[in-house]
């Protein structure tokens, strides 16, 4: 059975958006029960999004970039931001604004002044308020903290409010003490950022992070876990071909997956045969069972016989009927899938393996020469020879799995006034190893394990440049894969100091 009806991608997107809007309005009208509360609190962390969360954590604390997080409706932008906020230190200075209507620059300033520890007279001017917020950011920098401004559904910002967050607040502040701004919005804000007044910001301090959709395996694992919360045991829920079709219809969007699966459940089941009445289906099952029994009886002991291909009935997963006037193509959501389903492998979440250590590996102690016994209970240790090399600090020598060499010693020899480009920051060593293995860098680079928030923090630096201008110019010559990471210049002096603080050494 084949399906030749082609539907334009734009119609697909508009149908899903319209159906999802109606689905969310329906959920808002329902009363909360135990199951709905459990589903609302359920979170699933895909591997790609785990890496993106690491990137956002890195940029929010170690760069002055304006970070724009975008994704389609229902893709989990707000959930992603909530996960980001939960891993911030308890004493972090954060203002989180969730918008649901158009807001102005004056409204944004009032919210910031109310939520931040700044002293201002009533009815202070916009300029005075901006100056007070900038001074607070500088005070926090002196205490090795940052001022973090997070705006969810930022497409509700009017033009003046966007100008305030993108240009006015950072403009007169020192480079290393600017407020750090994260905007989470739909694709419409990307088009507004392309306006001429944001050209300088886009070129020097802008990072666009697009949330990755779920892979086929992640969609399957996500749906299975949600069904378990709903009390549907494994084996009683979705067949592999149904998981595949739901993933393709939803385009890896978790919100669309929820909608399609719920619609299918409310119709009384996931699998429906098309074109055969119930008695024909029952008769077919009996005949197939008889044929299978005969085959087992006659052929199961013959290992050389080729397997017999029994006819297969084309199964269509009828997942949703859109009862929304705004949805132009409701039949689209019943589109059958003709191809065979590849086997699903177990999902490996982005957690470190049991044999992977996230702590620095200490070097073994040097073998000391034999000690001479002067008395039965007194041991004299000979003085080290004058020509002996000094003991190196106990920093790790290589990553745990791929054995990429760490670059502490090499970086400590670089002039403190030079700059390097930070390409990657990650909480887990396997994330760094995977990046290095995939891209096989040809440029000189330094792999380091430092600390942030009393937890390991892995960074990748590329190049050695005399000043920040030369480092920025070098970005254009990097391979595309590295440029896509939005690298940014860091002074070597600050990184060397972090190494000294971590390993308690003054070795240059």
Spell out the key features of this protein.
disordered N terminus; five-stranded parallel sheet; 508 residues; 18 helices; alpha/beta; Alpha-Beta Plaits
Task: Describe the protein.
The protein has three domains: 22-27 and 217-302 and 309-334, no CATH class; 47-210, P-loop containing nucleotide triphosphate hydrolases (Rossmann fold, 3-Layer(aba) Sandwich), CATH 3.40.50; 394-503, 2-Layer Sandwich (Alpha-Beta Plaits), CATH 3.30.70. It has helices spanning 9-29, 34-41, 47-62, 77-86, 105-115, 126-142, 159-171, 188-193, 199-204, 216-229, 240-250, 254-266, 278-299, 408-412, 429-439, 468-475, 480-483, 492-503, and strands at 66-70, 93-98, 147-152, 180-185, 206-210, 271-273, 315-317, 372-375, 378-380, 419-426, 445-452, 455-465, 488-491. Strand 11 and strand 12 (455-465) form a beta hairpin. It has 508 residues and is of the alpha/beta class. It has 18 helices and 13 strands. The strands form four sheets. Strands 2-3-4-1-5 form a five-stranded parallel β-sheet, with helices on both faces. It has a four-stranded antiparallel β-sheet with strand order 11-12-10-13. Strands 6-7 form a two-stranded antiparallel ribbon.
